[in-house]
Amino acid sequence: MSIQVFGLPVSRGVAIGRAVLVASSRVDVAHYFVAAERVDHEIDRLRQARDAVAAELTTLQRDLPAEAPAELSALLDVHLMLLHDEALTGATKTWIRERHYNAEWALSAQLEVMARQFDEMEDDYLRERKADIEQVVERLLRLLATDDPAAGIAGMAGARDFAGEDPLVLVANDVAPADMIQFKRSVFTGFVTDVGGRNSHTAIVARSMDIPAVVGAREASRLIRQDDWLVIDGDAGVVIVNPSRIVLEEYRFRQRQSELERARLDRLRHTPAVTLDGEAVELLANIELPGDAPAAVAAGAVGVGLFRSEFLFMNRDGELPDEEEQFEAYRAAVLAMQGLPVTIRTVDVGADKPLDRMSPQELRHEHALNPALGLRAIRWSLSEPGMFRQQLRAILRASAFGKVRILLPMVAHLSEIRQTLDALARARQQLDDAGRAYGRVEVGAMIEIPAAALMIDRFLEHFDFVSLGTNDLIQYTLAIDRADESVSHLYDPWHPAVLQLVAHTIARARAHGRGVSVCGEMAGDPAFTELLLALGLRSFSMHPARIASIKQRVLRADTRRLADHAAAVLAADDAALAARRLLSAPTH
Questions:
Q1: Distance between CA atoms of 3 and 238, rounded to whole angstroms?
Q2: What is the 3-state secondary structure (H, E, C) of 277-296?
């Protein structure tokens, strides 16, 4: 029977495919596909974990004190029975063999199936046994987490390696940033999550990847079952589960229309981004890993405006990459860009991107009321001077192979600037002492805190360029946690205060003769292209998938006409409406 699930439309388009569920669990687990030759290894990991948990439970039962209630021993018997039940371990092996899930993901998927079965039981006693199966699975997951994760991740594969011809869509309660990076290597054509707002991390990544997505769909992961056929309508924010043939054909037609439009835009890849009045515009790419660089070149990017180096630090079970590993990654990105410039942002962790090795006092303490305002980004780097200098040395060494720029996240204080420049000078000195080569590196700051925008003139005395991180700038200007769906409706990139800060930063940077770009969501959103051009912006950095659509807007723009209307848009009560009326008018 076909049903509809409603959520927030966060990434346009239509996706059709089989559901792949990532079950929610009280234990954080890694989710990745394993290559065919690693399947037996994953099953062996599962067997070893089962045997170890069984030994643990048996020991607990044997060592129970004489005065312990009989019910406790009986409960341990139940857990042992569940542990060896084919409904759990046998079915989990099937997920590994047929879907190529890693052992943790397979366990979580089977837990979801069994939990639903228990929920549907009429007998109260049997229904309450769901807690037992959850406890057994969590014991297994914790034990699997003590494995060497690198062994499994080294054998990761793409979903297409086993999925046949059927497209796949991902359904989850939420998707962690690190999982998003792993999943984007696969072939998911759409995303559905129970939670999240229009500017949650999942929404931003889905938009940047140009993949249809619906978030905040509440009960989606409970109502949708593995292998259900889904239609994701990213324009309307609707997920249709097991659609009828007529509905399916209608959405397939819409899909074909979108593909034709993408093919038309793709022809602009190598066309220079120059406005009708002759203004050259720099369209750069945002990347997370060195392997993303070839896609940036293929999309027609003229460089990397933002290399998010923090993703080199994530999913590593607490072990940070050393200088040599970082150097190799940065050099690989520089070489892959074939002489085009690469801007590397120093590690920006915290808030929704914690590191495994961070202490509870730093990022994961349950009483940390708002990690977005805590020890993150440049604050964390300066609190770890050894790690920071290591990263700076790696970036400097990579600059010997091409044009490299360093970008500092979340700078708010002049004291932070001085400390950072001192760390950079010391890193250079250390390389000189070691006889290692490096090139000239420009240094810039992210403008993502209102204080930084208001201090822009003082900041520009120290920096070669600035880059507007509009996602955080909006969050901090409006005091809105962009990951909190209860206030996501108040997250407004068109808010007059936000636009004034953006306009002020661009104007002051241009007045000082410094480079200025936008690397946040605004840069890849066609609704803002004309306004940013009107304000004087000539450098945009975005996910490679967004470059063609932004280039189309640039090619059709006349910046002289747009500039005449910029002040009226900034002064309007409804800036979005004013921009559509004044800036989107056809040019002649």
A1: 10
A2: CCCECEEEEEECCHHHHHHH
Burial bucket for residue 264 (CB in 10 Å: 0-12, 13-18, 19+) = exposed
202-232 in b/e form (b: 16+ CB < 10 A) is bbbbbbbbbbbbbbbbeebbbbbebebbbbb
- What number is the average pLDDT over the span 110-124? 79
Residues annotated as catalytic are 201, 519
Matching residue, tokens 């929610």: 24
Binned at pLDDT 50, 70 and 90, residue 126 comes out as low
Going along the chain from its start, the domains and CATH numbers come out as 3-24+163-263 (3.50.30.10), 36-154 (1.10.274.10), 267-582 (3.20.20.60)
- What is the C-alpha separation between 471 and 468, in angstroms, rounded? 9
Q: How far is CA 58 from CA 75, 132, 294, in A?
A: 12, 16, 53
Q: Please, are residues 469 and 430 in contact by the beta-carbon 8 Å criterion?
A: no
Look-up: residue for tokens 């809105």?
480
Query: Over pLDDT 90: what percentage of the chain?
Result: 53
Q: Give me the pLDDT at residue 149, please.
A: 44
Burial 499-511 (b: 16+ CB within 10 A, else e): bebbbbbbebbee
d(C-alpha 470, C-alpha 473), whole Å = 5
pLDDT digits (tens, 9 = 90+) for 235-262: 899 999 999 999 999 999 998 998 898 8
Could you tell me the end-to-end alpha-carbon distance of the chain, in angstroms, rounded to an integer? 53
Q: Confirm if 310 and 376 have CB atoms less than 8 A apart.
A: no
39-62 vs 103-119: helix axis angle to the nearest 10? 60
Q: Is the pLDDT of residue 313 over 70?
A: yes
pLDDT in tens, 188-217: 889 899 887 777 767 777 777 778 999 888
Instruction: Print the SS3 string covering 356-393.
Output: CCCCHHHHHCCCCCCHHHCCCCHHHHHHCHHHHHHHHH
Asked if pLDDT for residue 361 goes beyond 60, the answer is no
Mean pLDDT, all residues of the chain: 86
Residue 478's closest CA among 460, 465, 496, 455?
496
pLDDT band at 369 (very low <50, low <70, confident <90, very high): low
Reading the block at residue 119, the tokens are 């929920």
Residue 185 has a pLDDT of: 57
H/E element, 213: strand 213-215
Angle (deg, nearest 10), helices 559-571 and 526-534: 100
Q: Compute the distance between CA of residue 131 and CA of residue 519 in angstroms, rounded to an integer.
A: 46
> Which residues are registered as beta bridge partners of 229?
18
